[in-house]
Design goal:
mainly alpha; binds zinc ion
């Protein structure tokens, strides 16, 4: 058994800090970004063919259009916004947008 040498207040504080970010995460925005009807049909047809899912349905159901996971959180506001545009979860966004290792 290891003994934590820090005072009790400090340990509690650290626990709180660990809880706060998850408690205050904004809910996933399930409103697809506006597109012209023709554009929406084109994108939905495309994602249906490639991923087997409609972009608009995926966003409304808070699931990833690409991998189908239930979308719960994003690392930042930009990624959160991106979901309403592309319908991609955080890990799929990372796969698409992160630059390859040098
Ligand atoms: Zn995904």
């Amino acid at each position: 058994m290891t003994i934590d040498p820090r005072p009790m207040e400090l340990r509690l504080e650290q626990q709180d800090q660990h809880i706060v970010p998850t408690r205050h995460l904004p809910p996933v925005d399930t409103t697809p970004s506006p597109k012209t009807p023709k554009m929406e049909r084109t994108i939905d047809a495309f994602t249906k063919q490639v991923f087997g899912r409609c972009r608009t349905d995926s966003i409304k159901e808070a699931t990833c259009v690409s991998c189908g996971v239930s979308v719960k959180e994003f690392k930042d506001a930009i990624s959160r916004k991106e979901f309403t545009i592309s319908g991609l979860c955080q890990s799929c966004q990372d796969g698409v947008f992160d630059s390859p290792p040098q």
